[in-house]
Amino acid sequence: VAEGEPSEGREPFELPRFWDALGQTFQVTSQEATKLSLAFSRPPLPSAENCRKLSEDVQNAILAVATVYYWLPKGQGTTLRKRVRDATTEVVEGMIQLTDTILNAPVESLSQEQLISTGGVWEACEQVSNLPRGEYNQAAVVSALAACLGVVKDAVEEMEHALVEGQDPYGDIMEDEELGFRGNRDTYWSEADRQLLSSCMGLMKASKACLKKVLAAVKAHGKADSPEHIAQLDDLADIANEISPSVDELALSMYPPVNPLAVRLNAAKLASVLKKVLEIVKTSHVCPPSEEGWVQFLTGAVDHNMNKVKDFTQGQL
């Protein structure tokens, strides 16, 4: 499941039928986990015949889950397929862990570990209800973009909070009663640092605005009615996934002591990712004329802030 690639089936693919079947197989797997756990919750042990029956039922449930996952063709979109694959893998791994726990636990009583493992399978099986079921790949891409936006929002807020004038960025994590007042200037930002970092904040805010606008455009105009449209949505999700780690890398390099060249390098990486996102949006079906204005504006904002970062760090080269 983790490494295999579903093949394009010969029969016409029906998404509603797929979701029904996936939901049913996850439900059956949850029930089999409960039966298995109860059978080994207290003495006496099940008979050899009952053990064989339990084993077969668990194996059949897991094989059914994997089989239904393999129904989902690549043509339905890689973003959707990744979400379903992750959910399926979680169920399989949960059942493996439960089985291992039962094999290694004493039979005298139901162990805490066994309870946790059983709950883990239930939780993994319930994830099927959270999978994006809108128009094929479009809902999965919306979900992926929303997750990226949430992470970037948090990073922007954290850095804004740290940059409050006069605030010690390490105040909450480097208190030391024995050392008392810290006189090390490496833990503070100079005025020159703050000028450089204001442009970096501009890039981080542009990242948040970019994801927000792309998310809205995909919701409003995203379609999964042709292989080309599905591929365009997947491209957007793939490149948008690079924004969050790039924002994190830039944010980490902004903490004192500031190395201006490291900041410039990470700012350039983020600017490059944002320009790629905007370029992909511009050439995709989610960007009718009504969306072109913000694409152009954000492209200009990225260039403006990156040029300011270059100006502030030019003397360091």
Automatic annotation (TrEMBL):
It holds the Pfam family GCIP_N. The keyword Metal-binding does not apply. Residues 175-279 form the Cyclin-D1-binding protein 1-like C-terminal domain. One of its GO terms (cellular component) is nucleus. Keywords: Cell cycle, Cytoplasm, Nucleus. The keyword Membrane does not apply. InterPro entries: GCIP-like, GCIP-like_N, GCIP_C. Residues 22-163 form the Cyclin-D1-binding protein 1-like N-terminal domain. It is found in: Cytoplasm; Nucleus. Belongs to the CCNDBP1 family. This is CCDB1 protein. It comes from Prunella himalayana.
